[in-house]
Write a structure and sequence with these properties.
Elements (H helix, E strand, L loop, with lengths): L7 H4 L7 H7 L2 H13 L5 H17 L4 E6 L7 E6 L1 E3 L5 E3 L3 H5 E2 L11 H5 L3 E5 L6 E3 L2 E10 L8 H21 L8 E15 H5 L2 H6 L24 H16 L4 E6 L5 E6 L2 E2 H21 L2 E4 L13 E9 L12 H20 L1 H6 L22 E2 L2 H12 L1 E2 L6 E2 L23 E3 L4 E3 L9 H24 L3 H16 L11 H10 L7 H4 L6 H9 L5 H54 L5 H30 L7 H29 L10 H6 L2
Parallel strand pairs: 1-8, 15-18
Antiparallel strand pairs: 1-2, 3-4, 5-6, 6-8, 7-8, 9-11, 9-12, 9-13, 9-14, 10-11, 14-19, 16-17, 18-19
Helix pairs in contact: 7-15, 10-11, 12-15, 12-16, 14-16, 15-16, 20-21, 20-22, 21-22
The chain binds adenosine-5'-diphosphate and magnesium ion.
């Protein structure tokens, strides 16, 4: 069938070596064994890998591939790939296309330049990549991509996928213990499910190219507020401009071919802001797909003369972008464990899983907060548009009411108060109402899943998800310990759930998270308010957090420390690049423009004088430009000095990061204030780069 007439259903997954393709191309026994490994997460027999590799290669060649690559997710947060040709020379001077089972299973990229947070120095180990059988291989850019995990030779995780897979394993193990107590003998695996909604901006590529800040840092470091922002709210769900619609259509098609189930698309709140949501998948596949989505978004944009901005805060004064991390747990038979049940028994099970999540989020809120922290996300969290830095859980009025009744042991329904026993009496029917959404909550229950809204738009979702899986695995394991020991499991369920609800009630907040009063209230409740990345960093090495990750074999203590180092280094590097970009833009572009403007005004004043006239307004303009130019120059000098002095900061990575937050960022803010003021009074024709109005409204 020709590409154009192929229906969407035919195109979907057409570039993926998926189950259907495997069934068609692999001998039956091999296919069965492979599927068994996929479902059970066990390793692959080399003989099987050999057959799979061959079938994969033949299929990839038919799709036009000439190369293969192990595709992995180093701790840079983006993906990495090194392409190798299938080609193998033969003795007669020709070549054949080859791909062995060994090459499929294991790769050895030269990994020395990826961040390891000191791990490599400690172990002097090179990294290797290992085939992840649970995420399908695919063809893109004439290359066969094989999703892989990336580890050091001594087994330390050097990537984001490895801890995610480990955490899914741990969560499954603990959840199954609970299911067994409820008489479920059939479930073999519990899968973390995940649907990330992705926000992004589109700007004209020609304008983008004129902004070094966008090119180097992903966000605008300068820009006065445009006359129109998002105040009319006329962009949210508004009709799509033709150019944007074309882009989205193209994007969907590319993603569908790669098996990414992009489902909804719409305009977001800010001008030029949009969103794409896929249908949920296993957390592992969803993470791979989200990485692909971000990459394809950028590539397709170029085709349409656009630039796709994934930064958390590309523009000051209008909403930033996040990722809504929709998370739940499901059995291998597809039963959602956060789906409130209709029978007393399924209600009790639901309540156990729900209280485990509440307990985990409350007890490990610092770690969860740290899992989404970055220099970029600092501009967004708590900026009156995104969930604040305080973690709380929204449950909705109805569910909260039910939990309050359980906690006090008194049912309010049916007139007279009666004792409410989980599992015996039928709970009031639990809410499935998705209309009472609280968009300000960082962690909201939305009927049958939790939506974690603090995740940044450019970040990998692997980290927040492996943290979430681990902390829920921990609270589930504690519940299972108690229930397994109990003589009367049913009444122990009552006791445990009540206890957990009482202990962790403080994390539930259904009100407006953007309100100033909430900050005060949260403080009274003893909830953490970790406003910047620097404040969250110590959470990564806090003993209780290191311990929980180690206990569930997600990150060893050494691996946790390495991630802490990387986080701090990354923070410093990002702020440093931003500061240097500011220096370059203000020194070589804004100041020269300001001097031209000064000259224009001064010439006018002089000309008037020569003609024996004078004009106070012109002199005032000259004065204003002059004053702002002075401010810009002096704050620029200060920034240059402060950045240079950073080299004198001796101490640990935290002190370094603290210096950048407390010394460099405030200087950057004063430079910006002076420059933005100049933008408002300097001749538009000589202003050196496109303004916010150009960027936000000229797509
Ligand atoms: P909205 O939040 O805009 O109302 P939906 O409720 O349809 O939209 O879902 C948003 C995202 O949540 C989608 O990516 C969807 O696939 C995902 N989602 C739905 N159910 C689950 C689940 N059980 N586990 C994980 N993600 C889910
Ligand atoms: Mg949503």
């Amino acid at each position: 069938m020709d590409e154009k007439t192929a229906s969407v259903a035919d195109k979907f997954g057409s570039s993926v070596f998926n189950e259907a393709t495997m069934r068609e191309r692999l001998p039956k026994v091999i296919f069965k064994q492979l599927m068994k490994s996929v479902q059970e997460g066990t390793s692959i027999d080399p003989a099987i890998a050999e057959v799979v590799a061959n079938a994969m290669k033949d299929w990839a060649l038919e799709k036009g591939a000439t190369h293969f690559t192990h595709w992995f997710q180093p701790m840079t947060g983006i993906t990495a790939e090194k392409h190798e040709a299938f080609i193998a020379p033969t003795e007669d001077g020709k070549a054949i296309m080859e791909f062995s089972g060994k090459e499929l299973i294991k790769g050895e990229p030269d990994a020395s330049s990826f961040p390891s947070g000191g791990l490599r120095a400690t172990f002097e180990a090179r990294g290797y990549t290992a085939w992840d059988v649970t995420s399908n291989a695919f063809v893109k850019d004439q290359t066969l991509f094989i999703p892989t995990a990336f580890c050091s030779y001594t087994g330390e995780a050097l990537d984001l996928k490895t801890p995610l897979l480990r955490s899914m394993e741990s969560l499954s193990k603990q959840a199954i213990r609970i299911l067994r107590l409820f008489g479920d003998e059939a479930t073999q695996r519990v899968i973390t499910t995940m649907g990330p909604e992705q926000e992004y901006f589109l700007v004209d590529e020609k304008l983008y190219m004129q902004r070094p800040d966008l090119m180097f840092t992903g966000r605008t470091l300068f820009g006065a507020k445009p006359p129109k922002g998002q105040e009319l709210e006329d962009q949210y769900f508004g009709s799509l401009k033709e150019r944007v619609a074309d882009y989205m259509h193209d994007l969907d098609e590319e993603l569908w071919k790669l098996g990414v189930s992009a489902r909804t698309k719409h305009n977001e709140v800010a001008p030029a802001q949009h969103e794409l949501a896929p249908i949920f998948n296993s957390a592992n596949v969803a993470t791979d797909h989200n990485q692909l989505t971000m990459e394809v978004m950028k590539k397709v944009a170029v085709r349409h003369g656009l630039a796709c901005l994934l930064h958390e805060k590309p523009f000051a004064g209008v909403n930033g972008s996040g990722k809504h991390n929709n998370w739940s747990m499901a059995t291998d038979a597809g039963k959602n464990l956060l789906e409130p049940g209709k029978t007393p028994e399924s209600n009790a099970k639901f309540l156990v899983f729900l209280s485990a999540v509440l307990a985990a989020v409350d007890e490990y809120s610092g770690l969860l907060r740290a899992s989404v922290a970055s220099a970029a996300n600092d501009h967004r969290l708590g900026a009156n548009e995104a969930p604040p830095a305080i973690i709380s859980v929204y449950l909705g009025e109805q569910l909260t009411d039910v939990l309050d009744q359980i906690e006090t042991g008194v049912a309010k329904s049916n007139g007279k108060p009666s004792t409410l026993r989980i599992g015996v009496s039928t709970l009031p029917s639990l809410p499935m109402d998705t209309s009472d959404r609280n968009r300000t909550s960082p962690f909201a229950f939305t009927g049958n899943k939790f939506e974690f809204r603090m995740v940044g738009s450019s970040a990998s979702i692997a980290t927040p998800n492996f943290v979430l899986n681990t902390i829920v695995a921990e609270t589930l394991s504690r519940i299972a310990d108690r229930l397994e020991k109990a003589k009367d499991c049913e009444s122990e369920v009552n006791v445990v759930v009540k206890e957990l609800l009482r202990k962790h009630r403080r994390i539930v907040f259904n009100g407006n998270n953007y309100a100033g009063e909430w900050v005060e209230e949260a403080k009274r409740r003893g909830l953490k308010n970790l406003r910047t990345t620097v404040e969250t960093m110590p959470e990564l090495i806090a003993p209780e957090n290191v311990e929980v990750l180690a206990k569930h074999c997600v990150l060893s203590a050494v691996e946790s420390h390495s991630r802490y180092e990387i986080m701090a280094e990354n923070y410093v590097k990002i702020v440093n690049i931003e500061a240097l970009t500011m220096v370059e833009m203000s020194g070589r572009r804004i100041l020269p423009a300001a001097m031209k403007a000064l000259r224009q005004a001064a010439d006018t004043v002089a000309a008037l004088k020569a003609a024996g006239a004078s004009n106070a307004a012109v002199e005032e303009v000259l004065g204003e430009i002059s004053e702002s130019t002075t401010d810009l120059k002096s704050s620029l000098d200060c920034l240059v000095r402060t950045v240079a002095d950073a080299e004198q900061v001796h101490g640990n990575v935290l002190e370094h990061a603290t210096y950048f937050r407390d010394q460099v960022i405030p200087c950057m803010n004063t430079v910006r204030t002076a420059a933005d003021r100049l933008e408002g009074i300097v001749d538009a024709a000589i202003w050196p780069f496109p303004t916010y109005a150009d960027l936000l409204f000229r797509v």
